[in-house]
Amino acid sequence: MAILGSNIGCGIDSSPTTPVSTASITVTANSLVLVAVAVQDSGSVEEPTLAGFGITWTKVGIEALYDTAGQQGTLWVFQGLNASPSPNPDTIDFTFAGGSPEGMEWIVDEFSGVDTTTPVADSKTDVTGGNTDNLTVQMNSLKDAANAVYCAWALDDDQAVTVESGFIELEEAQNSSDSDTCRTMWKLTPQDNSPSCTIGDSEHIGGVAVEIKDSGASTPTATAHQLALKGVG
Q1: What's this model's pTM, rounded to 2 decimal places?
Q2: Cα gap 109→97, rounded to integer Å
Q3: Chain centroid to CA 123: how far?
């Protein structure tokens, strides 16, 4: 069965109080759940701990620090998979041990037809300077013709993110109170290892691209690459 992606939830919180919970959602057994989380704070941004569905949630690679000017902005992608998620439906709870941030956005997407042992692995982080109206995450060559690409974006403005032609839009979460946006997308065929996005006005953008391994792929792992674009001023 080919990989198939869909959105199952999203949300924003302009005044979060830890723990922050999603609305009730339902996940599918043996499907890869990817959670994109963009968090903003005036100090250093703390990585959240996720809980829900009896799933062990793990971070994909290294976070993308997309803004260090004024309010800090960081984008994470977390992965989870369970043969018998319970309870189901459930919420996903984000806990910040050091205290609540100033704002956050999240998108929850699900992928069926994946390798249930190693659906996602490996990572890379790059950082550059300056505002931009576009961003490309250059990945390595994909490891199998059946594998898919997922990408999450975050920027420090509440404006629409236009995904690259050929990619399927999953969801977008705009937070007008904190002026931040999170967007996710995915693509199976034809394969594309350089996902990109564009925005109307130049801002600080971060992107996390993930190669998702098909259930019948011959390679032992998939690859995730993170690229954060950090604006200065």
Answers
A1: 0.92
A2: 25
A3: 13
**C-beta separation of 110 from 200 below 8 A:** no
Compute the Cα dihedral for 52, 58, 64, 68 and give only its sign: positive
β-bridge pairing 125-129 and 224-230: parallel
| Structural domain boundaries in the chain | 4-230
State the distance between the two ends of the chain, measured CA to CA, in whole angstroms: 47
Tokens of 110: 């699900």
**In degrees rounded to 5, what are phi and psi of residue 35?**
-115, 115
C-beta separation of 128 from 231 below 8 A = no
Tokens 């800090």 sit on residue? 72
CA distance 148 to 222: 10
Q: pLDDT means per 10 residues in the chain (233 residues)? A: 95 95 98 96 90 96 80 91 97 94 96 93 49 88 90 92 96 92 96 92 91 76 50 39
